[in-house]
Amino acid sequence: MSQQPIESKPVPEATPVSQPYWDALREHRIEIQYSPSLGRHVFYPRLLAPGTLADDLEWREISGEGTLYTFTVAERPTAPPWADAVPQLLAVVEWDEGPRVSTELVDVERGDIRIGMRVSPVFHDDAESQMTLLHYRPSTDR
After folding, report:
1. Residue 35 neighbours by CB distance under 10 Å
2. What are the ChsH2 C-terminal OB-fold domain coordinates in residue numbering (predicted)?
3. Within 13 Å of residue 99, how many CA atoms lie on the same side as its CB?
4. Mind listing the pLDDT tens digit for each residue in 109-123?
């Protein structure tokens, strides 16, 4: 019986609106939008500020440091391309600057994961797609 080849993992597709975010990740930096009319950062990338619909969004660099808001351990592949990547440690991180981002935890044992723990960004350069993905690991700063 022959084994099916593992599919390439899909990666996000940059759009004209999100391109600055992906460009910054490629440089191992994190930039998200800030709305002066709201007085806060917003994420995901968009054309108009949420709530006010102001067209004042500007890109600002953030530290990327944050707190683990929630997580799940996917024991089964979330899709066929991840068949060789279980368990997946899927998470939502709340950046110190406010917004939350969906991500994957790395460099941590599942038994050591705690909601509220401090986490730091890890930039994963994907050679196949030439994209940089944002993952998180426990922060060494306590």
Report:
1. 20
2. 59-124
3. 20
4. 999 999 999 999 999
In the numeric block, which tokens belong to residue 125? 């350069």
Domains and CATH numbers, the chain: 15-62 (no CATH), 64-142 (2.40.50)
Number of residues in the chain: 142
Alpha carbons 118 and 54: distance in angstroms, whole number: 33
134 to 5, 29, 38, 67, 68: CA distances (angstroms)? 26, 10, 26, 15, 14
Spans in the chain with pLDDT lower than 50: 1-4, 6
Of 55, 51, 126, 50, which Cα lies nearest the Cα of 85?
126
Residue pair 41/62 in contact by the 8 Å Cβ criterion: yes
- CB neighbours of 46 closer than 8 A, spacing ≥ 6? 17, 33, 57
Instruction: Give the pTM.
Output: 0.88
User: What is the helix (H) or strand (E) element at residue 124, kind and residue range?
Assistant: strand 118-126
Euclidean distance between CA atoms 122 and 142, whole angstroms? 17
